[in-house]
Design a protein that fits this description.
The structure holds 2 protein chains of 2 kinds. Chain A is mainly alpha-helical. Chain A has 9 helices and no strands. Chain A has one domain. In chain A, helix 3 runs parallel beside helix 6, helix 4 runs antiparallel to helix 9 and helix 8 packs antiparallel against helix 9. Chain B is α/β, with parallel strands linked by helices. Chain B has a domain of 129 residues: Rossmann fold (3-Layer(aba) Sandwich), CATH 3.40.50.300. Chain B contains 10 helices and 10 strands. Chain B is globular. Chain B starts with 5 loop residues before the first strand and ends with a helix. The chains are: A mainly alpha, B alpha/beta. The interface between A and B is medium-sized, with 14 and 26 residues. Bound molecules: adenosine-5'-triphosphate (ATP) and magnesium ion (MG). The site of adenosine-5'-triphosphate (ATP) has 11 residues of chain B, from helix 1.
Chain lengths: 261, 259
C-alpha cells in the first residue's frame, strides 16, 4: 500500500516538475518576446547574433543541403525505376527539400552550432556574475541578451532555408542530369510544375519557428546555468538536445497542421 | 533624526540547511562608508547581493531611503538597482566588449537625458580609467588581455563611472600592490566625501579598512558581532574582532573553524 503511495507521489512530483518547468520556459519566452515591443532595442547585439546565425552557419547548411538533394535524387531513382516512375524524381526532390529537409536539416545544424554557442556564452556570463552586473548598470538582461537573439533566430533561419532550398534542388538537378541522364530543361520544368507557393511559405514558416526555438533553448539554458565550467557545459548540452528534439517535434506538428489535408 | 540611507533589519538567508545570514541589523547613514569584515565564506558577498536584490532573502527588511526594497515589482527593483554601483568580487567584466565600453556601459545605458553620446561616454571612460591608474590606451583592449589587478580596477571604474548614490565594493583592493591599493582607497574615500555617495566595502585588508571606512562591522556566523568606528578596528575590545584583525591563530574563532 505504502509502496503504491510512493509510486503515485513520485509520479506526481515528476508531473509537477515537468509542468512547472514548461511554465517557466513559457514565461521566459513571453518576457523575452515582450521586450521586442518596448524600447530600447539593442541593435548591435541583434546584428552580431544575426550574423552568427545566418552568415557563419551558411557553409555547413549549404553542404548539408546539396548532399541531401543529391542523395534523394539517387535514392528515388533506384526506388522508382522499378515502377517506371522516374519522371517523379524532380518532384520528389523539390518537395522533400522545400517542405522538410531544408528547414529540418538547417534547424538541426544551427541548433548544434549556434544554440550551443549561445548557451555557452550566456551561461558563462551567468556564472561569472556578468548578468548580475548588467542589472546594476541600468540594463535589463532579458532585453539586452535574450530579446535580440530571439529575433535574430526568427529572421535568420528562413533566410538560411531559402539558400538550403535552392542548393538542395540544385544538388538533385546535378545528379539527375549528369549521372541519371535527365534532360536539364525537362527536369527544371518538372520541378516548377510540382512545387506550389504554399510549400515554400510553410517551409519558411517552419524555419522561423525553429529559429525561435533554437535561440530560446540556447538563451534559457544559458540563463539558468549554475556552478562554473561544468554547469555551463551541462547547459550547453541541454540546449542542443532540447533544441534538436523540439525542432523535430514542431516539424511534425506544423506538417500535420498545414500539409495533412 | 535622519533616515539612514540603507537600513537592514532581521535579514536571514539560508542555502539548503546552511544558515549564511542569521538576523542582520545594519544602518548605513547617507554620505558615509561602512566596512564589513569577516572570515572567508561568512556571507559578506551574500549580504551585498541581498541588498541588490540578486538573492531573495528568507526573512527581514531592507530599506533604501526608508523604502522597503524586497517584494517590489520587477520595474521598481530595476530602478533601485540602477541607483547602486557594484564592484563584483571577481570583476564580472563583459568579455565581449572592450575595456572602455565596459567602463562606459552604465553611461550608454541610461534612459532619456541621462544617456550619453558614445563620444562623450568614451571621453568620460578615459577620465575614470585615469582615476584608477590605468592609461587611456588600455581602453581599446579586451578584458581578457588585462592582468587580474587591472581587471579589478576596470570593474571599479565601471562601478563609479556614473557616480551612483550608493556604491558597493566587494574586496576592492584584493590583488593590487600596496601603492595601488592606497590609490584605490583614496578614490573610494573621494567618491564618498566629495560626491556624497554612500558606500559599503568588504575587505580583508585592515589598513585599507581603516582608510576607507567611517564605520565598520564584523560578520561572524551569520550575525554582525561587532559594529563601531572603523578607527577602533585594531583595538575594539571584542575578542572576535581582535583575533580577526590581528590574524591570531589562537582565539575564539579558531575553535569554530575546526568544528
Ligand atoms: N548561490 C549560492 N548557492 C549556495 N550557497 C551559496 C551561494 N552563494 C553563497 N553561498 C554560500 O554562502 C556562504 C557565504 O558566501 P559568500 O560568498 O557571501 O562569502 P564571503 O563572505 O563573501 O567570502 P569571501 O571573503 O571568501 O569572498 C558560503 O559558504 C557559500 O558556500
Ligand atoms: Mg565574497
Amino acid at each position: 500500500m505504502s509502496r503504491l503511495f510512493d509510486l503515485v507521489a513520485g509520479l506526481g512530483r515528476a508531473v509537477l516538475a515537468t509542468v512547472s518547468g514548461a511554465g517557466r520556459l513559457a514565461l521566459f519566452a513571453l518576457i523575452g518576446l515582450s521586450h521586442l515591443l518596448r524600447p530600447p532595442f539593442y541593435w548591435r547585439n541583434f546584428a552580431s547574433a544575426f550574423f552568427e546565425f545566418a552568415f557563419f552557419s551558411l557553409p555547413v547548411v549549404a553542404l548539408t543541403a546539396i548532399f541531401s538533394g543529391m542523395v534523394i535524387a539517387l535514392q528515388s531513382y533506384t526506388g522508382f525505376s522499378r515502377f517506371n516512375a522516374q519522371s517523379a524524381i524532380a518532384g520528389i526532390v523539390v518537395l522533400s527539400v522545400v517542405r522538410e529537409l531544408g528547414p529540418v536539416l538547417a534547424g538541426l545544424m544551427v541548433a548544434g552550432r549556434v544554440g550551443a554557442a549561445m548557451a555557452a556564452e550566456i551561461g558563462t556570463m551567468r556564472v561569472t556574475d556578468q548578468i548580475d552586473a548588467l542589472g546594476t548598470l541600468s540594463t535589463d538582461p532579458m532585453k539586452y541578451l535574450v530579446a535580440p537573439r530571439l529575433l535574430a533566430g526568427i529572421l535568420a533561419l528562413p533566410l538560411l532555408v531559402v539558400v538550403a532550398d535552392i542548393l538542395g534542388v540544385l544538388g538533385g538537378f546535378v545528379v539527375s542530369t549528369v549521372k541519371l541522364g535527365f534532360s536539364p530543361s525537362a527536369y527544371i520544368a518538372s520541378t516548377f510544375s510540382f512545387v506550389q507557393p504554399i510549400d515554400v511559405t510553410v517551409g519558411l514558416a517552419k524555419a522561423a519557428a525553429f529559429g525561435f526555438l533554437i535561440a530560446l533553448m540556447g538563451c534559457y539554458n544559458g540563463y539558468n546555468s549554475r556552478g562554473g565550467a561544468q554547469g555551463v557545459g551541462a547547459s550547453t548540452t541541454a540546449a542542443v538536445v532540447a533544441a534538436s528534439i523540439l525542432v523535430l517535434c514542431f516539424d511534425y506538428v506544423l506538417t500535420e497542421m498545414f500539409f495533412s489535408r | 533624526m535622519t533616515v539612514p540611507k540603507i537600513r537592514i533589519r532581521g535579514l536571514c538567508k539560508s542555502f539548503g540547511s546552511k544558515r549564511v545570514l542569521d538576523g542582520i541589523d545594519l544602518d548605513v547613514e547617507a554620505g558615509t562608508s561602512m566596512v564589513v569584515i569577516g572570515g572567508s565564506g561568512s556571507g559578506k558577498s551574500v549580504l551585498l547581493r541581498c541588498i541588490l536584490g540578486l538573492i531573495e532573502p528568507d526573512a527581514g527588511r531592507i530599506e533604501i531611503d526608508g523604502v522597503d526594497v524586497i517584494e517590489r515589482s520587477r520595474a521598481e527593483q530595476d530602478a533601485i538597482r540602477a541607483r547602486i554601483g557594484m564592484l563584483f568580487q571577481a570583476g564580472a567584466l563583459f568579455d565581449s566588449l572592450s575595456v572602455w565600453e565596459n567602463v562606459a556601459f552604465g553611461l550608454l545605458a541610461g534612459r532619456g537625458a541621462r544617456r550619453m553620446s558614445r563620444d562623450a561616454a568614451r571621453v568620460r571612460a578615459g577620465e575614470v580609467l585615469a582615476q584608477v591608474g590605468l592609461d587611456p590606451s588600455v581602453g581599446d583592449l579586451a578584458p581578457a588581455e588585462l592582468s587580474g589587478g587591472m581587471q579589478k580596477r576596470v570593474g571599479l571604474a565601471r562601478a563609479i563611472a556614473a557616480t551612483p548614490e550608493i556604491l558597493f565594493f566587494d574586496e576592492p583592493t584584493t590583488g593590487l600592490d600596496p601603492i595601488m591599493g592606497a590609490v584605490i582607497d583614496g578614490l573610494i574615500v573621494d567618491c564618498v566625501k566629495r560626491l556624497g555617495s554612500t558606500a559599503i566595502a568588504i575587505t580583508h585588508d585592515m589598513a585599507s579598512a581603516t582608510r576607507i571606512g567611517d564605520r565598520a562591522a564584523m560578520l561572524y556566523q551569520g550575525r554582525l558581532v561587532w559594529q563601531g568606528a572603523a578607527g577602533e578596528l585594531l583595538d575594539s575590545g571584542n575578542p572576535l574582532v581582535d583575533q580577526f584583525t590581528h590574524g591570531r591563530r589562537e582565539g575564539p574563532i579558531g575553535m569554530e573553524l575546526r568544528r
